[in-house]
Each structure stands twice: as C-alpha cells, then as structure tokens.
C-alpha cells in the first residue's frame, strides 16, 4: 500500500497569487512525505503551449483540445510539457497572463481537474491552486485558504521575478496581478473562493516557518488528534 496503513490525505491550499502557497506547500510536502502538486503550473503549461502554437488563449474550442492533448508531467519542483522541461519558461509574465485566460475555459478546467484527481488518488498530496478545496477535492481532509495583504503579495512576487532575471516595476506588476486576481475570482467556472470548511490563514507579516507551523497545527488537529504527524 502506498502509505502503509495510513489513510491517504489531501491537504488543499487555495488563495490568490503571491500569498505564499507554492513555498509553503512545497515545504509541507517535503516534511510530511506527501506529493506536492502545483496546479497553477499545469494551467501555465497549457498557456505556454497556446503562446507557442499561436493559439488565442481565449479560443475555447482549440484551447480545450490543447489541454486534453497536453502531456503534463509533474516531478518534485519541475514540470514537463510534452517531454520538455518548461519549469523556467512557465514563470514568464506573458505566460502568467495566458494561464489566467485559459483557466477561464470550462473544457480546459475539466481536463486539468481530471489529471489532478488522478494524481491525488495515488498518494497523499499537498495540492495548491484556486479551486482545490471547492472543486477538485471537496472532501479534502484539510483545507487552507492562504491570503496576504495585496502590497505584500506584490512585493513577494516581485522578489521571485527579479531573482529569476525578469525586470518589471512594482507598479506594473501590481496592475498585472490585480487584473489576474480579478479574472480568477470572477470567472463563472470554479472561481477562486474559500470553501466553507477551509481555515483562513493571513500570512501578512508572518515568516515562512510561522505559516508552516500554523498549517501543521491545523493538520494535526484535524487528522491525528493534535499528535505529531510522522
Ligand atoms: O498559481 P499560479 O499563479 O501559478 O496560477 C496560474 C494561473 O492559473 C492563475 O491565473 C490562476 C489559474 N489557476 C486556476 O485557475 N486554478 C488552479 N487550481 C490553479 C491556478
């Protein structure tokens, strides 16, 4: 059995961009021995493919076909699209924009959700995105809605982009993030929303370690009666 005698666990982390989901989810997965799934990277891979193929990311029919055909493989910290490592390519600002546009299309979401459920059924996962606790795994054992104040979210993203060699001003990035968050939160299909049974965590002013500990505490209280997990 994949996890010995222990039940398979889904830890779902949703929230807006720059709230710290990826950093926290990756660390928690490593610590718990769970599989880390960055679902945003999957929408980014589909967006990247659209840009490369010259397909309009808003073209519902063609985008659904691309999403179904996309060979997406997730490995710890890396993502492959049709066999090619696109981990760095999907972080470019143009791909952020395309990802948020393709993520509006119901057929694209159906294809991604199916892949995400297949992965989550194989092992315990820390899965992060926008609709994990509401749509992908509504029965997840633990749901976190991770948020932070807009100014802090912009500064965190800016640091990440600059570290990766992207030159963008704080003002320009703030405008782009606001546009994407607005699109992600107002689309008809699976908008960013806090599930009624999710715990809200505001990471503004908290260190990475503090957020990690806060979520571990929630996990322990829900799954192991407050005891250490491992
Ligand atoms: O988390 P991220 O910024 O890498 O996500 C890229 C885009 O994909 C973002 O605009 C929201 C969208 N997305 C989504 O609609 N549903 C998810 N589960 C994950 C991401």
Q: Could you give a short description of this structure?
A:
The protein is of the alpha/beta class and 230 residues long. It is built from 9 helices and 8 strands.
Counted beta strands: 8
The helix tally amounts to 9
Computed CA radius of gyration, to the nearest angstrom: 17 Å
Element-level helix/strand string:
EHEHHEEEHHEHEHHEH
Which secondary-structure class do the elements indicate?
A: alpha/beta
| Number of discrete domains | 1
- Roughly what fraction of the amino acids lie in strands? 5-15%
CATH class division? Alpha Beta
Detail the poorly predicted runs. Answer: none
Per CATH, the superfamily is: P-loop containing nucleotide triphosphate hydrolases
How far apart lie the N and C ends?
A: 17 Å
The level of helicity is 40-55%
Strand order of the largest sheet: 2-6-1-7-8
User: What are the distinct ligands in this entry?
Assistant: 2'-deoxycytidine-5'-monophosphate
User: Can you tell me the overall shape?
Assistant: globular
CATH architecture annotation name = 3-Layer(aba) Sandwich
- How many strands, which pairing sense, and closed or not: the largest β-sheet? 5 strands, parallel
Q: How confident overall, as mean pLDDT?
A: 93
Describe the structure.
- This protein is α/β, with parallel strands linked by helices and 230 residues long.
- The chain has a single domain (10-223), classed as 3-Layer(aba) Sandwich (Rossmann fold), CATH 3.40.50.300.
- Helix content is 50%, strand content 15%.
- The protein contains nine helices and eight strands.
- It has helices at residues 21-32, 39-53, 60-69, 93-102, 106-122, 132-136, 150-163, 170-186, 208-223, and strands at 10-14, 35-38, 72-75, 78-81, 84-85, 125-129, 142-147, 199-202.
- The strands form two sheets. The protein has a five-stranded parallel beta sheet, sandwiched between helices.
- Helix 1 (21-32) packs across helix 9 and helix 2 crosses helix 4.
- The longest helix has 17 residues, at 106-122.
- It is globular.
- It starts with 9 loop residues before the first strand and ends in a 7-residue tail after the last helix.
- The mean pLDDT is 93.
- The chain binds 2'-deoxycytidine-5'-monophosphate (DC).
- Residues 17, 39-40, 43-44, 99-100, 103, 129-131, 180, 184 line the site of 2'-deoxycytidine-5'-monophosphate (DC).
């Amino acid at each position: 059995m994949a996890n010995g005698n222990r039940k398979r666990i889904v830890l779902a982390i949703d929230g807006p961009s720059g709230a710290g989901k990826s950093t926290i989810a990756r660390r928690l997965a490593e610590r718990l021995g769970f599989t880390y799934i960055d679902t945003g990277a999957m929408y980014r891979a589909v967006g990247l493919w659209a840009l490369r193929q010259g397909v309009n990311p808003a073209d519902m029919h063609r985008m659904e076909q691309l999403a179904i055909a996309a060979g997406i493989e997730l490995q710890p910290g890396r993502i492959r699209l049709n066999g090619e490592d696109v981990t760095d390519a999907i972080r470019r600002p143009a791909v952020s924009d395309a990802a948020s546009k393709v993520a509006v299309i119901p057929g694209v979401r159906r294809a991604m959700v199916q892949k995400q459920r297949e992965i989550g059924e194989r092992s315990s996962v820390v899965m992060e995105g926008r609709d994990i606790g509401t749509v992908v795994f509504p029965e997840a054992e633990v749901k976190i809605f991770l948020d932070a104040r807009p100014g802090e979210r912009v500064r965190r993203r800016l640091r990440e982009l600059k570290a990766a060699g992207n030159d963008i001003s704080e003002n320009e990035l703030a405008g782009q993030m606001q546009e994407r968050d607005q699109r992600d939160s107002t689309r008809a299909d699976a908008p960013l929303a806090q599930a009624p049974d999710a715990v809200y965590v505001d990471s503004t002013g908290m260190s990475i370690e503090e957020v990690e500990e806060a979520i571990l505490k929630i996990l322990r209280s829900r799954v192991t009666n407050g005891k250490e997990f491992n």
